[in-house]
Design a protein that fits this description.
single chain; alpha/beta; Rossmann fold; 5-stranded mixed sheet; 15 helices; 45% helix; binds nicotinamide-adenine-dinucleotide
């Protein structure tokens, strides 16, 4: 993979090579799977609100479509680069395969600062993107979804623009749509819910009771807030610390996760809430070093490094974000007895409910919240079992086991297609 220096790309290459070695993948398949199948770079002309023409760079990468149409998010961010998008597309291939979804992996992005353009300009940008990519999109080809700085409104514009190319309604061309346009129940909390299911299984595997187990969560956005609510609420864990980019709040006997999440949604930063009734202030570095049953980094990539890994004292580190632990930190955590549940497993709930949305769109059905939840729980349970048994049978870390299962399933599909 042409990784460049992007940390996520370097990390994805490292884990892929380990999995390929462990599976003794032949050189042809290794070569095929180490690079994307397709990469489209396009320039998008947009007439801005002031009448001036501006051109934006965009990229859409399909890493693999061996198991089905490509699935993966679309980000609108200044940092978007082909190297990062390639790595994220490959991660989607392994994640979809591990969750046993009938999808390959893709990812895309536009290099733009969303805060510097209006809604009208964002809509025009989205339409230009669909115009450029239309022949390669569709529910049987490539199905984008929200990602950094794209939301359900962008997906609605995307679907609407695609309709002109398809000469009809095709709701299955994107997921993460508003409910009114065919979005699924349960999508907003899907990543958090999936992570919570995995945490439940992983604690049982470590012979630790769920009730009262302590947890610290870094990141209080969509994934982190949802996770705090579910773990602290219905599952009865003790959420002792949460943080956002401003800092964190800590209380030994457990925070009121619901009250904190509501205050955050009303505009407060976590550090503003610390120091009073909610709990004491703590830094993000202190949060990572807490002695807890579960540490869930749910914010950024690369937060646990070779430098700070020896300070982690959690029993389980559950990667709710993409790539929070750098490869150099893995052996240090293993040495200290910290079990790491990898991102391709722990954050698989989001794309799984995206699959449910696609299935509902294609069958013209609407599922109840209970049905979404029951099916998500089933899929997370199957993926956990596949990883746990592989780890135990071959004496592997959960990360190596998860990557092996993901890579093996994609390789198997490629083999059936070609040999
Ligand atoms: P988000 O933008 O809603 O929230 C990100 C949170 O991280 C915010 O609370 C922000 O304040 C916090 N943050 C930023 N910098 C920080 C720092 N230096 N220290 C501590 N906290 C910091 O994003 P999200 O949707 O919750 O996604 C979080 C992670 O989960 C990302 O890695 C994303 O790729 C991954 N993920 C999300 C989904 C999903 O469905 N939302 C699915 C799969 C993976």
């Amino acid at each position: 993979m042409s990784a460049g220096s992007d940390p996520l790309a370097l990390s994805a290459r490292h884990h892929f090579q380990r999995a390929a070695d462990g599976l003794e993948l032949d050189s042809g398949l290794r070569d095929l799977l180490s690079e994307p199948r397709r990469e489209l770079r396009v320039r998008l002309p947009v007439v801005m609100d002031d009448g001036e023409l501006q051109v934006f760079d965009a990229v859409r990468v399909v890493h693999s479509d061996a198991r089905g149409p490509a699935k993966g998010g679309l980000r609108y961010a200044p940092s978007v680069s082909p190297g990062e998008v390639r790595a994220l597309a490959a991660l989607m291939s392994w994640k979809c395969a591990l969750m046993d979804l009938p999808f390959g992996g893709g990812k895309g992005g536009v290099t733009v600062d969303r805060s510097s353009i209006s809604d009208q300009e964002t809509r025009a940008l989205t339409e230009a993107l669909v115009d450029a990519l239309a022949p390669f999109l569709g529910p049987d080809r490539d199905i984008p979804a929200p990602d950094m700085y794209t939301d359900e409104r962008v997906m609605a514009w995307f679907m609407d623009a695609y309709r002109r190319h398809a000469a009809g309604q095709v709701p299955g061309v994107v997921t993460g749509k508003p409910r009114a346009l065919g979005g699924s129940r349960g999508r907003n909390r899907a990543t958090a819910r999936g992570s919570a299911h995995i945490i439940r299984q992983a604690l049982a595997w470590c012979d630790r009771e769920l009730e009262g187990a302590s947890v610290a969560i870094q990141g209080f956005g969509n994934a982190g807030r949802g996770l705090a609510r579910i773990l602290g609420g219905e599952l009865g864990l003790r959420v002792v610390a949460v943080s956002d980019s401003s800092g964190g709040v800590y209380r030994e006997d457990g925070l009121d996760a619901e009250a904190l999440a509501t205050a955050k949604e009303e505009g407060a930063s976590v550090s503003e809430l610390a120091g009073g009734e909610h709990g004491d202030a703590l830094t993000n570095e202190e949060l990572l070093a807490l002695e807890v049953d579960v540490l869930a980094p749910a914010a950024l990539e690369g937060v646990v490094t070779e430098e700070n890994a020896s300070r982690v004292r959690a029993r389980l580190l559950v990667e709710t974000a993409n790539g929070p632990v750098l490869p150099g930190a893995d052996p240090i955590l293993e040495e200290s007895g910290v079990r790491v549940v990898p991102d391709i497993l722990a954050s698989g709930g989001g794309v799984t409910v995206s699959w449910f949305e696609w299935v509902q769109n294609r069958s013209g059905d609407r599922w109840s919240a209970d049905k979404v939840e029951a099916r998500l729980q089933e899929r997370m349970g199957l993926a956990w079992e596949a990883v746990r048994t592989r780890a135990e049978d071959r004496e592997l870390s959960l990360r190596d086991a998860a990557w092996q299962v993901g890579v093996e399933r994609v390789a198997e599909a490629e083999r059936y297609r070609r040999v």
